[in-house]
Amino acid sequence: MDLHHILGGGGEPLLLIQGMSGTHLSWGDPFLELLQEDFRTAVYDHRGIGSSPAANIAFTIVELADDTATLLDTLGWETAHVLGISMGGMVAQQLALRHPQRLRTLTLGCTYCGGPGSAAASLSTIHKLGAAMTSGDRERAIRVGYECNTSAAFREDPSHYEAFRAMVLAAPVKIATIMLQMQAIAGHNTQGRLPQITQPTLVVHGTEDRMLPPSNGRLIASKIPGAKLELWEDVGHLFWWEQPQRSAAAVKAHALG
Known about the structure:
Layout: E1 5-9, E2 12-17, H1 29-35, E3 39-44, H2 61-75, E4 80-85, H3 87-98, E5 103-109, H4 123-133, H5 138-149, H6 152-155, H7 158-170, H8 175-186, E6 201-206, H9 215-223, E7 228-232, H10 239-242, H11 244-256
Parallel strand pairs: 2-3, 2-4, 4-5, 5-6, 6-7
Antiparallel strand pairs: 1-3
Helix pairs in contact: 1-11, 2-3, 4-5
C-alpha cells in the first residue's frame, strides 16, 4: 500500500496517524509546525483517503496498522515515536501489538480500545452526524462535524470554524470511505491485549469529547502498564486542533523527556 505521505522538520522520527475521515491536513499547521521544531514528522493519508490508493472493499484496523508498518519501511525508519488519535489511536494500538519493535514511544489521543467498559458516541450524536453526512448538503455536514468534534468554549470564536472548514474543503473525503472506516472501527477490540504494550505510553483525552467519551482514556491507561493519563478539562475530541501548543508540549515531554 503506497500511502501518500509528507515529511517535515528535523530530529527524532515521529509518525502521526489520523482518525476517521482525517487527512494529512487534519493535524493543522500550528500543531505540526511546533512538532517539527524537534521531530522529523511523517503525516499521511490512510487507504481511500486523499492521494492514497482507493479503498473499494472492506478493511480492518489490523490492515491499516500493517499499512503503517509498510510506510515505516518506505520511509526507511526502523523505529519511530508514534502518535495516533481517534481511529488512528486504534491503528497505533494494533501497530504496537503487531510490530512492537518499531515504536520508541506511543501517544494515544481521544481513542478507544473496544471491549467491556468502552463507550462510543451517544446515539443522538451518531444520528446527528449520520443525517448531516447523508443529506447531500456539504455545508451542513461540515458544520455538524465541527460542532460534534469541538468544545463549546472553542466554538465561541467564529474564526475557528473558518479554519476547520477550509481544511475539510481542501481535501474532501468520500462518504463511502468513511463508511468503510466505521465498519473497521466496529470490529476493533484490543482491550485484552493492551497489557502486552511495553512502550512508554501517554494517553490524552478531553473531558468534553462527544465522539469518544473520556472514560475510554481512563480505561486504556488502566490497561497499559505504566501508562500516563492526561484528562484535559473542557476540551473536545479534536484536542490538538483546539490546543496545539499544549498538545505539542505534551508529545515532546513524553517522547523526548
